[in-house]
Specification:
The complex is a heterodimer. Chain A is α+β, with helices and mostly antiparallel strands. Helix content of chain A is about 35%, strand content about 30%. A 5-stranded antiparallel sheet of chain A has the order 1-2-3-5-4, covered by helices on one side. The longest helix of chain A has 22 residues. Chain A starts with 5 loop residues before the first strand and ends with a strand. Chain B folds into 3 domains: about 55 residues, 2-Layer Sandwich (Alpha-Beta Plaits); about 280 residues, no CATH class; about 80 residues, 3-methyladenine DNA Glycosylase II, Chain A, domain 3, CATH 1.10.15.40. Chain B has 16 helices and 11 strands. Classes of the chains: A alpha+beta, B alpha/beta. At the A-B interface, strand 1, helix 1 and helix 2 of A face helix 11 and helix 13 of B.
């Protein structure tokens, strides 16, 4: 029996920075196959991309799950990283704790979380220092 | 929708149904069915990767033959700059131009010359306010089709200026009518000497509704073999090139970029690299980027499948040929208004068919694809005729093929069956005992 939701799961590899962003490309392809509009696809792709990059930079990877239902696309990014001590501060544009080697690659500009908020309809952050972070982003269809 | 006319085709008699092209196609447009490859015209972008990789020469680039020239009273050659990089020991482009006249052309209008006009228009265009940046070059027809099919959000970034070949055709035709008032328009043949099949498709499909000024497209390789004979005979050339360093550089990756006269550009070549760059541009902001040049072929146009020389050797030759040319002798426009006759109407998204027009049904089919994939080995071996297990699962759900085409899946079914019916196993102990009893 098939459920009313299609679920895609991706293991985001924390050791492989060069493959970060691959899940976003896959999701984009699947959404296109399901006939979503270019605007919806772009918003999901960007939110997902930023989330994926964050998981690799800060949390040594994690698991990304995307659930597609009739009226929404939900992205759940779960990691076992260091957690976010001050969420309000982390949400500020330009605030970043990325290391210099990451910044030298052009990442860590402090736009990850702000972009995830900007491109999704809702952003929920569950985080505990030392335990990990789960980010749930919803794009309404 | 008007059917898109392609110029990459298959010679069925030569196709052995192997998996080379299948796995190389960047848009997964190829399937092997009943032992032969088949190209899905809706997905093909004419990049020529399958032509490059086919070991049996079953994939071909369709172009006009040189015999077509006889149809026209006044024949104008429009050589792509990539042609100049084909020749060994050539130290002056003038020999190629003279060779074309000696081959029987009445006039030569270099695409490299027109490219300098396009570079000038590009600089004008980039000065305009309100442009969606980065502006992406429209010169490579493969890239334009790829963006229109797969990157809808970037359609507005494509520069709506005619590609050099079209500008060359337009200017060459005007020049001929002016210099030879006795000619009627049908007497004139603009013959483009092209490095790649995608430009053939471009001409056949009238770019974005724009009627092409090109009448015939022949291949660089066909012309090359004619030219090497003619060029041997010619003495010091009396004709000379009218192109400069900038125009000739359009043949190689990065050449078009340098013409924008600033450093805020990106140049990528090779179809896989192009796709990766577009994925990134679509996902992120690159505020420092003004202009993006993308070439589907490795090395740029010198890497086209209708050329003869290795693209990197051709590139090196172009570098030495352009060395003593003037920078850009053609057109340095003033202001920021591109002449309207040089503009295209813009580029629309061409969506590929979703699983179903009905959202609920599409989602159900996607769930089914996910379920089927669990039973597939993810080897992407191509034995089923699809380029990957994911594509195979989609084909099954679309009803194009049956799951038992997967050899790995069937081997498992077979083993399960055998372990449930051990007595039928050939050579098994039980069978031996039975036959001894008989």
């Amino acid at each position: 029996m098939l459920e009313d939701v299609v679920r895609f799961t991706f293991n985001v590899d924390g050791d492989d920075f060069s493959s970060a962003g691959a899940a976003s490309v896959q999701v984009k392809k699947h959404l296109r196959q399901m006939g979503f509009s270019p605007e919806i696809i772009r918003r999901v792709a960007i939110a997902m991309y930023e989330g994926e990059i964050n998981m690799v930079i800060h949390a040594d990877g994690g698991v990304a799950t995307v659930e597609v239902t009739d009226d929404s696309i939900v992205m759940i990014l779960a990691d076992k990283g260091p957690g976010i001590p001050d969420v309000e501060l982390a949400m500020k544009e330009g605030y970043s704790t990325a290391k210099d080697n990451i910044r030298s690659l052009g990442f860590g500009a402090g736009m990850g979380l702000p972009n995830m908020k900007k491109y999704s309809d809702s952003l929920k952050i569950e985080t505990e220092v030392g335990k990990g972070t789960t980010i749930i982003m919803t794009v309404n269809v | 929708m008007i059917e898109y006319k392609h110029s990459v085709s298959l010679d069925v008699s030569k196709c052995k149904g192997c998996t080379h092209c299948l796995q190389r196609c960047p848009t997964e447009a190829i399937r092997v069915r009943d032992g032969k490859a088949a190209i899905n015209a809706d997905k093909c972008i004419d990049c020529g990767e399958c032509i490059r990789v086919c070991p049996y020469n079953a994939k071909k680039a369709t172009h006009d033959s040189l015999d077509c020239l006889e149809k026209y009273k006044y024949k104008i050659a429009l050589p792509a700059p990539a042609l100049y990089g084909q020749f060994d020991n050539l130290d002056d482009i003038d020999f190629v131009i003279q060779g074309l006249y000696d081959m029987g052309f009445d006039d030569v209008f270099e695409v490299a010359k027109a490219a300098e006009y396009v570079s000038g228009y590009t600089r004008q265009y980039l000065k305009q306010n309100g442009l969606k940046k980065p502006v992406i070059s429209s010169a490579c027809p493969v890239v334009v089709r790829l963006i229109r099919m797969r990157f809808p959000f970037l359609c507005d970034n494509i520069m709506p200026i005619l590609p050099p070949v079209e500008v060359a055709g337009m200017m060459a035709r005007e020049k001929a009518l002016k210099e030879h008032p006795e000619l009627s328009p049908e007497d004139i043949g603009c013959i483009f000497i092209s490095p790649c099949p995608a430009k053939v498709s471009y001409v056949k499909n009238s770019f974005s509704g724009h009627k092409s000024n090109i009448d015939v497209v022949v291949s660089v390789s066909d012309v090359y073999f004619r030219l090497i004979d003619t060029m041997k005979k010619s003495k010091e050339p009396s004709a000379s090139t009218e192109a400069g360093n900038v125009g000739v550089s359009w043949a190689i990756s990065g050449g078009e970029c340098t013409a924008v006269f600033n450093e805020k550009y990106l140049a990528a070549d090779g179809i896989e690299n192009v796709i990766r760059v577009l994925d990134q541009i679509e996902n992120s902001d690159f505020p420092f980027l003004e202009f993006v040049e993308l070439n589907a072929c490795n090395g740029g146009c010198v890497g086209g499948v209708m050329t003869v020389a290795n693209p990197y050797i051709a590139r090196a030759r172009i570098q030495s040929l352009r060395r003593y040319l003037p920078v850009s002798p053609n057109l340095h426009p003033e202001g920021d208004t591109v002449p309207p006759e040089m503009m295209l109407p813009g580029f629309e998204y061409i969506p590929t068919a979703p699983l179903s027009e009905d959202r609920k049904e599409a989602r159900r089919m996607m769930s089914e694809i996910q379920e089927i994939r669990k039973d597939l080995p993810d080897l992407d071996c191509g034995s089923c005729g699809a380029p990957s297990c994911a594509a195979f699962a989609e084909d099954i759900v679309r009803g194009d093929i049956c799951a038992d085409e997967c050899v790995v899946f069937m081997r498992k079914v077979f083993h399960d069956y055998l372990s449930a019916h051990p007595y039928e196993r050939v050579g098994s102990e039980q069978e031996k005992n039975e036959s001894e009893e008989n």
